[in-house]
Design goal:
binds calcium ion, two-stranded antiparallel sheet, alpha+beta, about 325 residues, single chain
């Protein structure tokens, strides 16, 4: 989506994300690159405006801009209707990378201005543009855009405006929610049929905001206070989408599900998870894959560090 006048290079957005994590990391008691609860953090990215960073995307140093900060804040806040200002959907967690639904790319070719001068001046006027997530782009292109725009409009070079996004969002919900929507919190029939369900969601998910899943589970509970008997949600700190990231991955959830279905008993309160996809020293928790473990907590209980070696699950509890 087009936000006013500026597409930040990936490095600028990555610097803002890193600063947010760095500012909030210790609030949960452990400096591990994972922020358990951004709601408890008062970090204001406006403090970053004017901070110098090295940027590979533009092959130069640059100063963090107010527009990039506004871009990040808009992604954290989530889209709003341009008609009445109401939220359309949830924003990304502040720990989520901007490389999913807020991806940009920079053209390293010299601008026409530079080329005119001989094309020998490095580090000037690189052009950055949106790099839309392919599913969102295809959804817009194939299902939502009107008429000839479906096949002829290039959303990379001619991105939709905030007004268009607002209109297409409404159109999408009106046209398709009844057929393929997944937000209906009424699980009456599922419960009656003896269904059981476990959901886990990475807190740093870069594609699907965690807040949306929380809100869905809250809505289910609001309709049925006993829903925890057949449906549980687990938040996986520091995990990106599916298996990305250096956070805690609950890879055994299918085994837990099978045991619960086949042997019955109480729904799981905890879910073993480890840093299975860690890549070592990347500025966050680090460590070799499998070197850190915790037990995820059934929502709405939350992980809490109680002391000891943070790499061991015994050092954490749910409350
Ligand atoms: Ca932490």
């Amino acid at each position: 989506m087009r936000l006013p006048g500026y597409f930040p290079p990936p490095c600028e957005l990555a610097a803002i994300r890193s600063a947010a994590i760095e500012a909030c990391d210790r609030l949960d008691g452990v400096r591990d690159g994972i922020v358990l609860d951004f709601a408890a953090c008062t970090f204001d990215p406006a403090s970053l405006v004017g901070v110098q960073i090295d940027c590979q995307d533009t092959q130069s140093t640059m100063l963090i801009t107010e527009k990039a900060v506004d871009f990040a804040k808009a992604m954290w806040e989530g889209p709003r209707s341009t008609h009445d200002g109401r939220p359309l959907w949830y924003g990304l967690d502040q720990g989520a990378a901007f490389t999913g639904i807020a991806k940009t790319t920079c053209n390293l070719a010299l601008s026409p201005f530079d080329a005119h001068k001989g094309g020998s001046i490095p580090g000037t006027m690189k052009v950055c543009s949106p790099a839309p997530f392919f599913l969102a782009k295809d959804w817009m292109q194939i299902f939502l855009l009107p008429g000839a725009e479906k096949t002829h409009r290039d959303l990379t070079t001619d991105p939709i405006t905030s007004d268009e996004f607002s209109q297409l969002f409404r159109h999408s919900a009106d046209q398709y929610a009844s057929a393929i929507g997944t937000a209906d919190p009424d699980l009456t029939e599922f419960k009656r049929a003896g269904g059981k369900m476990l959901t886990w969601h990475g807190t740093y998910d870069e594609l699907m905001p965690l807040a949306g899943t929380r809100a869905y589970y809250d809505a289910v509970l609001a309709r049925d206070r006993q829903a925890g008997e057949y449906y549980r949600l687990f938040e996986a700190p520091g995990m990106g989408h599916c298996y990305a990231g250096e956070g805690y991955f609950p890879g055994d959830i299918i085994d837990v599900m099978i045991e619960w279905v086949e042997q019955g008993g109480s729904p799981p309160d905890r879910l073993y998870a480890e840093n299975r996809y860690a890549v070592g020293s990347s500025g966050s928790g680090g460590g070799e894959p499998g070197s850190r473990a915790i037990e995820l907590c059934a929502y709405p209980t939350k992980l809490k560090y109680v002391g000891g070696e943070p790499e061991k699950k015994e050092s954490w509890t749910c409350e």
